[in-house]
Amino acid sequence: xxxxxxxxxxxxxxxxxxxxxxxxxxxxxxxxxxxxxxxxxxxxxxxxxxxxxxxxxxxxxxxxxxxxxxxxxxxxxxxxxxxxxxxxxxxxxxxxxxxxxxxxxxxxxxxxxxxxxxxxxxxxxxxxxxxxxxxxxxxxxxxxxxxxxxxxxxxxxxxxxxxxxxxxxxxxxxxxxxxxxxxxxxxxxxxxxxxxxxxxxxxxxxxxxxxxxxxxxxxxxxxxxxxxxxxxxxxxxxxxxxxxxxxxxxxxxxxxxxx
Length: 259
Known about the structure:
It is a single chain. Helices cover 2% and strands 54% of the residues. It is built from one helix and 17 strands. The chain has one helix at 11-15, and strands at 33-38, 43-48, 52-57, 60-72, 75-81, 88-95, 100-108, 120-129, 140-141, 148-155, 158-164, 169-176, 183-194, 197-203, 209-216, 221-229, 235-249. The longest helix is centred in the first third of the chain and has 5 residues, at 11-15.
């Protein structure tokens, strides 16, 4: 039985048009090949073409649709949409200069696999690009956003407020759009990629959707995607992007910080 409020919007209803302020795609990686070695031993080989990527991952390989966006100098948001794995998608944040990489692998699970949890799960894997000297910080979970309240303008019809409550949860409310007046608290994971660069992810409870966003606080831009189940039961991978405005910051006394 659906326990959501009667006017609660489905994933596809709120996501429509939420990519109006997204950065444009780039062909900067087209014609290049890269091998990523992850900390857990996984090895992923990629060869980029204009609008697709050939990948090899252990015994699996294929050519799939890819979107590449330069979200900071030499830093790319790479979204691989698997034709043969419609319930899965991989987002790669990679810097071709520092050779640092973070993979966010999103999986739409069956309901019985996610009792008491968000239905869409995410796996995080730091790694490096083979073939050169590695520099810069290792991507790692971060508490830096705790206490921040910020506004995200995805389009004239999509404005949301985020309040980062702890290392595990954030609160959101819709200020402009079809979800106006709606809000919730959902599970989050945040990684720091470099100075003023963060990967923020959330996994919703009320509807089957998870999101991955790259925050560039130098340019005050957010670039990301949603993966989830639409109102009619289909899997959908939706692009998104926003302008960021920091509204306020809450500071905590020693010993009273959130988890």
